[in-house]
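Apologies for my clumsy wording, but could you write out the amino acids of a protein and the tokens describing how it folds?
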Amino acid sequence: MAKPSRAAVTGLLAGPASLAVAGMLVNGCNLLMNLIVARSLDSDAYGAVSVQVSIFLILSVAGNALLIGVVHHETSGTGESRREQWYWIRRLRGACGLGIAVATLAALVLSRPAAALMSYPHPVAIAEATIGAALWTLLCVERGLIQARGAYQRLAVNFVVEGFVRIGLVILFVVAGMGVNGAGLGIVIGVLVGSEHGRWAVNRTPRLPRLSASTAAGQDPPADASLTAARELTAARELSVARELSVAQESGRASAGQGQPAGVAVPLLLEDGLPPATGPIPVPIPAPRPSARQSVIADTTVALGALVPLALLQNMDVVIVGWLGSAGVGGYAAISTACKVPVFIGLAVANFLLPEAARRRKEGRPAGGTLAIALVFVVTPGLLLAAIGLVGAHWLIGLVFGAHLTDASGALWVLALSMTLLAVTLMFTTYLLGAGVRRVVAVLAVATVATAGALVSAGGAAMPTAVAALVTELVTAVAVGLLVVQLHHTDRQEAAARQAADVRRQATDGGFPAAV
């Protein structure tokens, strides 16, 4: 097996590095936004903004699931011509536009009843969060296309553009006195600008060429895959004919020695006694592929089944602490926000891991290296945050959120480890979804139920809740990690079986390619 060149290794690291840097930049600006908004609004208004953001994050899971379906379909290589490639993209964009219109109408009609049901005094904020989540689906379509085409630097720029515009407008509108509704308006405009920038990037990013098996093994890619296949087929045919002529000549000499005239044509027979094949070479007809709509819907449904539990694992601790009526919910919310750093970086790096894992497996190449690189980028900041929380949690929380929210700072390092394990679970899940493993959905569903029970049993106190989250996240990461180990074991067995079959085939053919 050919060793990867220095340029290949550099290119492999450049993707997650640029996305991780973009994620840290946006996350840092998010912390700055929380600092400014928390100091500009009273506690009730700041809590309302937090609820609005939570509604947006929960509803945006649908867009994230759609992104995974888009990546799977785009990396599958369906659609040979440029017209076929862009046809399904235009249809998907049109469907998203229709969904945005329906969601906007539903948000305007149902926002007041929903606010009354939730005892939430800002119905316009609910409508803004819903419209922003609907626009997020269109942004995810563009980001999925950029991911699948390997343009990770452009994707990182899109993260920065969308994040900076959204965060800047939220700060501007809140400081200008627009309050909770201004924050929601900033979210909507930021996502809209990000989706338009993503569309611009997609129009300037060509689809990656599909690689042959020889290219996956380390050889140079052919200029034209179909021309190379035709040449290989022609060479095999010529070799087969040469073997047939050799057999015929030997048969002719034997017949002449037995008294037959030398000029009489002798029928050509192969080694198995059958005449050689003549006429057009049969071409295998591939099985019909599912339509773009069926493929995207199927992949999106599976991804939704995995991303919903992950979203609950990320946010349910704060909800449960508030639901139990704990007096320290504000302090716990502060450390929970700070500990989301590895998760947010993981969400950015997942945009590299998903298409690379899917593409490499379709090309027959190992994808474990991409997973290892992604894990390094999410584990390192998580451990650094845990170390800071162990020695300076009170100072950090007081600096960012204010001295009145430092009550739960002692549990910062424990919760940081818990969120780091959640980021690891996110990387494992993304890798498995890229490989088409659907069992992870059931594992995450069971883990979510178990985690909810453990958090409720903690009673709402900061340290017991953080410890319960750490234990359950550790068990979840191990369970999902075992699926990754099982996948690699199955891959090794299949590779060994294919290699053994190739050896037997070459031994049967005497080292020559089989006759066509």
User: Anything to note?
Assistant: Residues 212-234, 262-272, 277-288 have pLDDT under 50 and may be disordered. Residues 16 and 352 are 6 Å apart (CA to CA). The radius of gyration is 29 Å. The chain is about 80% helix and 0% strand.
